[in-house]
Design a protein that fits this description.
This protein is mainly α. It has one domain: Sodium/glucose cotransporter (Up-down Bundle). The protein is built from 22 helices and no strands. The chain is globular and about 70 Å long. The N and C termini lie far apart (66 Å). This is Transporter, SSS family. Its main location: membrane. It is found in: Cell membrane.
Length: 573
């Protein structure tokens, strides 16, 4: 792997991504534009960004490990994300947009009260740092192994680089790099697939060399109960995770929010088959990996079949998909801290300039926390254990009550807080304490079922008890009144904000077009340097050039001149 071409690809592409972040340094003039894209992000950009926000090197390491060991069940598990997104598109995403809140935390404060919001902010921030810090570890491991570098300095260096463009550019910088990584990883995997099948001797040889249970939809510890609970988990996660809620609130309408979720669902219907096939093929080539070494299955198949340059591109895509996922979380955690803690509690009179400064500084602070968590992952059982355990323990208690509040007129802040804290405590007891004190350890399926099932049952019970009394909660009545009392901005302010948003969106689409063109040219250059996979690489590059042209045309269609009415109003107040 450690060749001049691969290293050059990694360095050039990394520098290019950092430049993209710097281009957006002056586009965020206030919190709405910095964290929500002016609430007018094109839905297809939001959908692709949402898809890549779910991606990371953990996809290749954690799910790749499951695909190598058990086969098709890794695809079954990821199809639960498609089901969750369909449910979200039908019922949840439009609801979030209709709340009018900039962040999920803002909705929680208005609907359930400040004490609930403070508790949720603390838990969400802690969970986000743990999850996104844990997915930084596998990509640092991939880079350190591939380039023969020490793991700790590699983790720190990649983490600092990851934070830089989010702290500078805000949501649009994150989304542009999301789109770029989607294209890079898709290109790399489409090049990898035929080379891997050729190496194993074709599809028929592949099916003959793997275990008999390899194509069963359920396998090993991943039972029907686990998959069913995972469906409910992903309904809550995709529909209620604050990171993803930001994608629904940053578009222009509930209809667009629905399209964001449906695009995600469509991509996750097809992509798991494409992404998981390479480590499955590697099982037929080398079935000897055991323990944590199975986490290297994806990297090993890449090293085996990809020619120089393309291997560097794949590795770069894995890293930046991780940074895209982590940066999305950073952007949201920073938004919550800036909008709901600093502005909402510490300094309500803060200027836009002060808020943007706090937003960028908080991105660095939370990012450094993620680096610290990444350094601890090897000591707690690896990436699969960390990601699934955190999801099982925190998903239901943290996400289900807020989603329930989108629909319920009877749920109170006090009930929400009690259900969240009690079920979170129960999950932690079964995960951390009982295995040590009593030797009781839940299976993966039991852990997931309890983590999602108990909060939902308690919420349903609380709703039923409140319905028997026939009353509407005071928290809901206060929320409705607060929405009704929200001041309406003047037509001049609205027109000015809309003009600035259109300019930002046009600029963002132009940057996407330039980034895609750069990627296509890099692929064309690599196709000239290798005989293996040269044809498919050139074809993919041409398709990417078409995407660049489409983005450029879409940018030019956005009107960025002031409306005549606004010009008259400004000139003749």
């Amino acid at each position: 792997m450690n060749t001049t071409i691969d290293t050059a690809v990694i360095v050039i592409f990394s520098a290019f991504v950092l430049v993209i972040g710097m281009l957006f340094a002056r586009t965020g003039r206030n919190l709405k534009s910095f964290f929500a894209g002016g609430e007018a992000v094109p839905w297809f950009i939001g959908g692709l960004s949402l898809f890549m926000s779910f991606f990371s090197a953990g996809t290749f390491v954690a799910w790749g490990s499951i695909a190598y060991k058990y086969g098709w069940v890794a695809i079954t598990i990821q199809w639960t994300m498609c089901i969750g997104a369909i449910f979200t598109g039908l019922w949840l995403a439009p609801r979030w947009k209709k709340t009018g809140a900039l962040t999920a935390a803002e909705f929680i404060r208005k609907r359930l009260g400040l004490p609930v919001q403070k508790t949720y902010i603390f838990i969400f921030t802690l969970v986000s740092i743990f999850i996104k810090g844990s997915v930084l570890y596998p990509v640092a491991k991939l880079v350190s192994v591939s380039l023969n570098l020490p793991l700790v300095p590699t983790t720190i260096g990649l983490g600092i680089f990851m934070i830089a463009y989010t702290a500078v550019g805000g949501l649009w910088a994150v989304m542009v790099t999301d789109i770029l990584q989607f294209v890079v990883l898709s290109a790399a995997v489409f090049i990898l697939m035929p080379l891997a099948f050729d190496k194993v001797g074709g599809f028929e040889a592949f099916t003959q060399k793997v275990p008999a249970t390899f194509f069963e939809p359920l396998n090993g510890e991943y039972t029907f109960g686990f998959v069913l609970a995972f469906i409910f988990y992903h309904i809550a996660y995709i529909g209620g995770n604050w990171t993803f809620v930001q994608r629904y609130t940053s578009v222009d309408s509930p209809k667009s929010a629905r399209k964001v979720a449906f695009l995600f669902a469509g991509l996750y219907l097809v992509s798991p088959i494409i992404w998981m096939m390479p480590p499955m093929i590697y099982k037929a080539i080398n079935p000897s990996l055991v323990g944590l070494d199975t986490e290297n299955a994806y990297l090993e198949i890449c090293r085996l079949v990809l020619p120089p340059g393309l291997l560097g591109l794949m590795l770069t895509g894995m890293y930046f998909s991780t940074s895209a996922s982590a940066n999305t979380a950073l952007n949201v955690v920073s938004a919550v801290f800036t909008n709901d803690i600093y502005k909402g509690i510490i300094n309500p009179g803060a200027t836009d300039r002060q808020l943007i400064r706090v937003a960028r500084l908080s991105s660095w602070g939370f990012g450094l926390g993620m680096i610290g968590i990444a350094l601890l992952v090897p000591y707690v059982g690896g990436i699969v254990e960390v990601v699934l355990s955190i999801g099982a323990v925190t998903g239901g208690p943290l996400l289900a009550p807020a989603i329930w509040a989108l629909f319920s007129k009877r749920q109170t802040g006090r009930t929400t807080l009690w259900i969240t804290c009690s079920t979170l405590g129960l999950n932690l007891v079964f995960k951390l304490i009982l295995p040590v004190l009593a030797g009781i350890k839940l299976s993966r399926a039991e852990e997931m079922v309890m983590g999602m099932g108990v909060p939902i049952l308690l919420l349903a019970l609380a709703e039923w008890l409140a319905s028997r009394q026939g009353t509407v909660s005071a928290d809901y009545l206060r929320y409705v009144q607060e929405k009704a009392d929200t001041p309406v901005i003047s037509s001049e302010e609205a027109a000015s904000e809309a003009l600035e948003t259109r300019r930002q969106n046009r600029f963002g689409l132009k940057v996407i077009a330039g980034a895609l063109a750069f990627t296509a040219l890099m692929l064309l250059g690599l196709s000239l340097l290798t005989a293996q996979g040269a044809g498919v690489t050139a074809i993919i590059a041409i398709f990417i050039l078409g995407g660049a042209a489409f983005s450029w045309v879409a940018a030019l269609r956005i009107q960025v001149q002031p409306e005549p009415a606004l010009i008259r109003e400004v000139n003749h107040p």
